[in-house]
Specification:
With 85 residues, the chain is of the alpha+beta class. It is 34% helix and 34% strand. The chain folds into two domains: 32 residues; 45 residues. Strands 1-2-3-4 form a four-stranded antiparallel β-sheet, with no helix packed on it.
């Protein structure tokens, strides 16, 4: 009976240790903070409201600019803007 309790306690502690290790690894890999360099990667430069639900946006992603139209049901890329725009 003593041998059974020792084995049970050993396996239980081993499994608890494995679960704690798995949760630790999960949190370190999934919940990483984004790099500070990418903090301002996507930025809304300008917005023009056409109606209550329709808006046109000029988005800057890195060194590129895009003209995007959005309403309550969908979002559409209208054009990629050139540097002089």
């Amino acid at each position: 009976m003593n041998d059974y309790l020792i084995h049970f306690a050993t396996y239980t502690l081993a499994m608890l240790g494995f679960i704690v290790l798995a949760v630790y690894v999960y949190k370190k890999t999934i919940y990483t903070c984004p790099k500070q360099d990418n903090k301002n990667f996507l930025k809304v430069e300008n917005a023009l409201r056409l109606s209550a639900s329709k808006t046109i946006y000029v988005l800057k992603a890195g060194n590129e600019k895009f003209l995007i139209a959005g309403d309550s049901s969908n979002t559409t890329m209208l054009a990629k803007l050139k540097e002089e725009n």
